[in-house]
Amino acid sequence: MPDFAFHNLDLKGAYLIENFYKGDTRGWFTKSFEKDIYEQAGICFTLSETFISNSSKNVIRGLHFQTDHPQSKLVSVLSGRVWDVIVDVRPDSPTLGQWRAHELSAENHKSFYIPSGFAHGFASLEDNTVMLYQCDGKYSKETDTGIIFNDPDIGIEWPVTEHAAIHSERDLLLPTFREYIKALSADIYQ
């Protein structure tokens, strides 16, 4: 079985991954994770829990992260397409507040490895988009938070207009990046 292709992003620890893929007249088969191959690429990932979401076109989810025991995530699309976004929220990082995005789809067989200390979100580009989240670390409801998707200090260029976007009430009430930084300096999250 051929190796995966790991593309190290300029936000330390984040990778865009081209998964093993084989297709023929029957359909296709892809492998999105193998512990030994990931470790050879420098990624130590232990699966703790798995989530699957289904989203309509124009849904924007996130930007989510945990302040206590942040999880690393491996995200893939099983059906449909997303514009997947990560934001560095690590307090001591030289790239704090910077974001990167890539299209993930069932057709391109790519995954995003998101290290702990990053906020994550996505815009669904098709109806019935199904995302697979594989997480390393325990979920902490008490410290599950995020940053509002349209924060001007971060400046994410979403492919969905704000008028067309569909959000949860929770996501619309998330703090701004400045509020997050202010809370960090007040030791609220430490």
Structure write-up:
The model has no long low-confidence stretch (mean pLDDT 92). The chain has a single domain, classed as Jelly Rolls. It has a 6-stranded antiparallel sheet with strand order 1-2-10-7-12-5, with no helix packed on it. A 5-stranded antiparallel sheet has the order 9-8-11-6-13, with no helix packed on it. It has a two-stranded antiparallel ribbon with strand order 3-4. The protein is built from 3 helices and 13 strands. It is mainly beta and 190 residues long. 10% of the residues lie in helices and 41% in strands. The protein has helices at residues 35-40, 169-172, 177-185, and strands at 5-8, 15-18, 20-24, 27-31, 49-55, 60-66, 72-79, 81-88, 99-105, 110-114, 118-124, 129-136, 144-146.
Brief summary:
The protein is mostly beta strands.
Write the layout of secondary structure elements.
Blueprint (H helix, E strand, L loop, with lengths): L4 E4 L6 E4 L1 E5 L2 E5 L3 H6 L8 E7 L4 E7 L5 E8 L1 E8 L10 E7 L4 E5 L3 E7 L4 E8 L7 E3 L22 H4 L4 H9 L5
Antiparallel strand pairs: 1-2, 2-10, 3-4, 5-12, 6-11, 6-13, 7-10, 7-12, 8-9, 8-11
